[in-house]
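Example (one chain per record):
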Amino acid sequence: MTGNIGGLQGIDMTSGLAEDNPAEHQYRGFVTIRATGVEGNVLLGQLSPDEVRKMALQFLETAEAADQDRIVMTMLTRDVGLAPETAASFITKMRDERGEIWRD
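Predicted structure:
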């Protein structure tokens, strides 16, 4: 499945710079994030570079988990012959286990 899921059209990011202490030439970087919904609504905010790095890692981990869930669900229903409801229950338990591992 491709396209917009949940009404999100896209997320754009722009780097920014702010002056913390002009006398001592101290600056801080930030990232402005703009999320646009398919109906044109916009959510705008700023995060630190460290927060964006953490979020980027979460995006990658979650994308990988979604692919793993799809593969396991397909194999359990197609190859093992489980009913979709049973396979979905297994996927839910797998997500819980994965969540425990990722929290550590």
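Caption: The chain has two domains: 1-47, 49-104.
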